[in-house]
Amino acid sequence: MTERVEGHGGALALAALRAHGVREMFTLSGGHVFPLYDAAHSTDFPIYDVRHEQSAVFAAEAVAKLQRRPGLAVLTAGPGVTNGISGMTSAFFNASPVLVLGGRAPQFRWGAGSLQEMDHLPLVAPVTKHAETVFSADDIPRAVSAALTTALTPHRGPVFLDFPLEAIFSVGDAELAAPAAIAPVEPDPDEVTKAARLIAAATRPVIIAGSDVYAGNAVAALREAAEALQVPVFTNGMGRGALPPEHPLAFAKARRTALNDADVVVVVGTPLDFRLSFGDFGDAAVVHVVDAPTQRAGHVQPAASPAGDLRLILSAFADHTGDRADHADWIARLRTAEDAAKARDAGEMAAETDPIRPARVYGELRRALAPDAITIGDGGDFVSYAGRYLEPSQPGTWLDPGPYGCLGTGLGYAMGARVSHPDRQICVLMGDGAAGFSLMDVESLVRQRLPVVIVVGNNGIWGLEKHPMRAMYGYDVAADLQPELRYDKVVEALGGAGETVAKAGDLGPALGRAFDAGVPYLVNVLTDPADAYPRSSNLA
């Protein structure tokens, strides 16, 4: 079924966006994209603006991640687009279906030196699934619809369109087709059976579930497979919370024991990258389950690698009727290790130290956060502790930068999360280094009445760099920040509120005030600079 639409290029684009379920626009004002604003304003389509274009893309990505639908960022020509490239790259690594619409200098004057004239496509093409310049207003609805279909087709990811001035300001008309259905990718049944047999026959299997399990709406299928085959489950990224912490097969703290001793490691919906030792688990066989053939690892040879709709693959695992080994002793062994680690962590999270240890911050946060709170990690050293001490109880409640590791996601993600979930707690965990990238966008949150809580772990250093550099060279450079800087005063100056906490006993009351404030509120926690998160380097 098609519909005839007419209007200027902005109106034509918006008609296609609405048809695909896009419900808001994130942007930073620019004249090259005025028709998009005009179309939105005249039809009460929400516009949220930011102070740096990267935040617009990160906000759109948060919507895409949390709601599993397209997020939209609109960027003006030239520096507007280049400022958004880190956001596009993060979305590319995270398989987030983000559409970025860019302005573009007029084509009829191309080469004459118009304001912000540059060809964006060579820059954005490597970090998007599709990048195109649309030269005619009549062609805009087709291009927008096709781009959104591409963004939503597994393996999902960002797409980019730009419009020369004469195209977006011109009046046109076109047929607007109904959005194309995204057909599930059918996996090879023989590869699925091969993988299921390996898992069922293993004596010490482990599942690691990542972000694509949530993005592919495969959380229920994961639980069914784990319960049917009785396999312990660890998670990362947006896979966190797929099994609630109290589930008998949910594990978080016994990962080292599990991966050291497993005989089959099943990695579902996440790449075999530095976070997972590049797929090297000693003598264990690796089963890599991916949502598209393009995501199969090229640097290792898995024992099996089913590719396709994760719901279909995991449901097939659950339905496997072949011989199965008994995993009860293995599960019990991991539970013993898990319980021992939890007991150690409980002591650390209650530590009464001066200065405050990061673990204590997370101990207080565990008491303050509601089960459906959206928690956002934006930082290195301080946020590394979150993976150890916070255990999301529901899927779709954790956002981090993902494998690209880009700092500055925090307040853009917070904006997208607040727009997505107006009635939930939104909490940004931010290192003091990361605060330098996006803290100015507190003003955007204040002005648009989007309250969030920001917890800054303030140790006055770049923790993941200072200590390793000192260990390697005996000295460090470019690794210090101002000690005890008052980031809360910055937020107050921007219209929010906040306070500095220097004593562990003051953390709980400060967090209570923050979540009750109704405005952007920053809790500036002075943490111990000597207490850096221990980790081995996986950079190579």
UniProtKB/TrEMBL annotation:
Protein name according to UniProt: Acetolactate synthase-1/2/3 large subunit
Family matches, as NCBIfam families: PRK05858.1
A matching Pfam family: TPP_enzyme_C
Keyword set includes Transmembrane: no
Domain Thiamine pyrophosphate enzyme TPP-binding: 378-525
Residue stretches spanning the membrane: none
GO biological process: isoleucine biosynthetic process; L-valine biosynthetic process
Cofactor(s) required for function per UniProt: thiamine diphosphate
Keywords on record: Thiamine pyrophosphate
One GO MF term: magnesium ion binding
Domain Thiamine pyrophosphate enzyme N-terminal TPP-binding residues, every copy: 9-121
Record organism: Micromonospora matsumotoense
